[in-house]
Design brief:
It is a single chain. The protein has about 260 residues and is α/β, with parallel strands linked by helices. The chain is built from eight helices and eleven strands. The strands form two sheets. It has a nine-stranded mixed beta sheet with strand order 3-4-2-1-5-6-7-11-8, sandwiched between helices. A two-stranded antiparallel sheet has the order 9-10. Helix 1 links the parallel strand 1 and strand 2. The chain is globular, with a radius of gyration of 20 Å. About 40% of the residues are buried. The mean pLDDT is about 95.
Length: about 260
């Protein structure tokens, strides 16, 4: 198995190193191709209007990696388009230092890198850590999350009928793996954002704006990603690229949309 590891925090992020090291224990080959700087909350980006550059770098443990000035999804596309000559069997993205749950998935460069993999017909997995707020400025232990991801990858790869369009969004509670309650398959939960617009003036008196506010929370509903995390479980949410709302199609058809507009 050949695994591509990427992220949205930059190639030198400690979460990426922990994930790459864990994947070396599960795969014959691990290649790292990640952004050369932070792309957090970048969403699903495709760079088309400027050239992309890729440089060889050395990670903290002495292993080699590739760094691109593109987004996380660009890194996956570069690999699939031939920058990495050897066939890639699985893409791992992370480890993000904060959870990606609920509507976060639409913003997250971590998750959209896994989505890009699925577009190319390769299973993609996003891994995020639910780091407590009080750990700001303190070294974060990513190893338990990396071990959890390795367990999931090993389980998946033993299944001969693994679909090529698999997207898994994994969120791991903070702390030792032995203290976690277990693993739960979950659905996307509801994120509660508490954003606010902060208006300031520059030295010339012209206004500029920050989107700020308190840390988002969520609804602790059983069976959801937020609910599982809050209860101490590793949350695994299978995602799909098809965003079609069949319920809305049915609602519009039941009210005569096709008949009235086609008359």
């Amino acid at each position: 198995m050949h695994i591509l590891v990427t992220n949205d925090d930059g190639v030198n992020a400690p979460g990426l190193l922990a994930l790459a090291q864990a994947m070396r224990g599960a795969a014959e080959k691990v290649t790292v191709l990640a952004p050369d700087h932070n792309w957090s909350a970048s969403g699903h980006v495709k760079t088309l209007h400027r050239p992309l550059r890729v440089d060889k770098v050395t990670l903290e443990d002495g292993t080699s990696a590739w760094a691109s000035d593109g987004a996380p999804s660009d890194c996956v596309a570069l690999a699939q388009l031939g920058f990495i000559s050897e066939k890639i069997d699985l893409v791992l993205s992370g480890i993000n230092p904060n959870a990606n749950i609920g509507y976060d998935m639409t913003y997250s460069g971590t998750v959209t890198a896994a989505m890009e993999a699925a577009i190319w017909g390769v299973p993609g997995i996003a891994v995020s850590l639910d780091r407590p707020e009080g750990l700001s400025g303190v070294a974060v232990d990513y190893k338990p999350a990396a071990e959890a991801a390795q367990r999931i990858v090993r389980w998946l790869w033993q299944r001969e009928d693994l679909p090529s369009n698999v997207i898994l969004n994994i969120n791991v509670p903070y702390g030792p793996l032995v203290e976690m309650k277990g693993f739960r398959l979950t659905r996307q939960g509801q994120r509660i954002y508490r954003d606010e617009l902060i208006r300031r003036l520059d030295p010339r008196g012209k206004p500029y704006y920050w989107i700020g506010g308190d840390t988002p929370t969520g609804v602790e509903e059983p069976g959801t990603d937020y609910g599982a995390l809050s209860a101490g479980f590793v949350s695994i949410t299978p995602l799909q690229l098809d965003l079609t709302s069949q319920a809305t199609i049915n609602w519009m058809e039941d009210r005569g949309f096709n008949a009235e507009l086609s008359a």
